[in-house]
Amino acid sequence: MAIFFYSIFTLSLIASAIACDRCLHQTKAVLFTNASALSYGACGYGSSATSFYNGHLAAAVPSIFKFGSGCGACFQVRCMDGKLCSKAGTEVIVTDLNNKNTQTELVLSSRALMAMANKGMEQNILKLGATNVEYKRVPCNYNGKNLGVRVEESSHKIGQYLAIKFLYQGGQTEIVAVDVAKVGSTSWSFLHRKSGAIWDTSRVPAGALQFRMVVTSGYDRKTIWAKTVLPADWNVGVVYDSGVQIDDIAEEVPCNYNGKNLGVRVEESSHKVGQYLAIKFLYQGGQTEIVAVDVAKVGSTSWSFLHRKSGAIWDTSRVPAGALQFRMVVTSGYDRKTIWAKTVLPADWNVGVVYDSGVQIDDIAEEGCGRCD
Q1: In the sheet that 354-356 helps form, which strands lie side by side, from edge to edge?
Q2: Which DSSP string do the residues of 153-207 spell out, in sequence order?
Q3: What is the spatial distance between Cα 293 and Cα 275, in angstroms, rounded to a whole number?
Q4: CB 43 within 8 A of CB 169
Q5: 332 DSSP β-pair partners
Q6: Is 37 among the domain residues?
Q7: Phi-psi category of 357—alpha, beta or left, where left has phi over 0 and alpha has psi -120 to 50?
Q8: Number of separate domains in the chain
Q9: pLDDT, the chain, mean
């Protein structure tokens, strides 16, 4: 028992460190020409994968794959070429690890790539083999189907060895720990993640089996108890109904600076004579990302855009003289809005000083997919 709780505690800490990210991302999606390789990839779903989301499969980079806990995660993906693709996009499920193609975060099956195309443009997108996309994690939905537990062919009762994989995992969660016990018993044994979605133990008890899973959705954790899953006469290759489903949605904590406004710090590299300004934003509230910044002289409608120099630092070599106002485009999930800070820097601004923007960002990330601009 002590070992089991230590295992859960440790895995939970790992999960919180790599908790799911609900932010909007951009990358280049690339075609995976070998569909069977995606099915029989690192997650180990095998032939079951083709039934997931109509075969809209994806291989994901290690930061999404998360040593296997990202297997089965669902993402909304939308092509950014309005002529080639529809605004609706498609949903894909992670079935494999992409650790070879460093040019992209997602490698998609042909079905997934074609599903993003406008009617009649499916072959065009296939010929290109790659397209710029934006993507975000979304809850998986299997229309009322419970979490499935498949007994792998390597399992054998005599040797007390059991290997299982979870199928049809709903919500926006990751299974980070699993243990098993005989139905009616309180003597639990923990399973190891063998690889991908497969968990195993060499200490499986005889009889009908129950399972407990620790799942994490963002920073929230909970235990799911499936009280009767495998019968005493369980067989390999069979998918058993767990009787439960996971429908939790990722939770993240918005930043809260207790009434402090968004701060704008003038970096030391700035100089008025050279019309160069470098700023960084501090105390950014809510659950948002600043994705674009403009500057203009107070009272003017002649705006100049800033470039993201690095991290939270934005700069321009065309800063106007006088007091300055800023406009920031922020994104919370798929929702975007413009924040206007009407008077931020005085005409005699100085480097190294943090100025009060007079505004704060308190938006919370919204689930679901809106339409592209």
Answers
A1: 307-310, 313-316, 277-282, 263-266, 354-356
A2: TT-BTTTTBEEEEEES--BT-EEEEEEEEETT----EEPEEEETTEEEES-PPSS
A3: 17
A4: no
A5: 335
A6: yes
A7: alpha
A8: 3
A9: 86
Residues 29 and 123 in one domain: yes
- Residue 281, H or E segment: strand 277-282
Sequence-separated (6 or more) residues with CB below 8 Å from residue 22? 136, 137, 218, 250, 252, 333, 365, 367
Residues 110 and 193 in one domain: no
DSSP secondary structure code for residue 80 in this structure: S
Distances (CA, A) of 308 to 31, 154, 287: 30, 52, 19
For residue 324 the two structure tokens come to 């300055």
The pTM (predicted TM-score) of the whole model is: 0.66
Amino acid at 201: T
Same domain (yes/no): 101, 212? no
Burial class (CB in 10 A: 0-12, 13-18, 19+), 274: exposed
SS3 25: strand
Same-domain check for residues 230 and 311:
no
Residues 200, 130, single domain; the answer is no
Q: Do 23 and 121 belong to one domain?
A: yes
User: Which tokens is 372 given?
Assistant: 């592209």
In a domain, 96, yes or no: yes
Q: How far is CA 303 from the centre of its chain?
A: 34
Structural domain boundaries, residue 22? 16-138
The answer to whether the Cα torsion of 182, 185, 187, 192 is positive or negative is: positive
pLDDT band for 59, please (50, 70, 90 cuts). very high
Average pLDDT on 40-57 reads 87
Residues 309-351 pLDDT 10s = 887 899 999 999 999 999 999 876 556 789 999 999 999 999 9
Query: How far is 173 from 20, CA to CA, in rounded Å?
Result: 8
Q: Are 217 and 250 in contact (CB under 8 A)?
A: yes
Residue 31 pLDDT > 80: yes
Question: Of residues 214 and 2, which shows the higher confidence score?
Answer: 214
On whether the CB atoms of residues 307 and 277 are closer than 8 A, the answer is: no
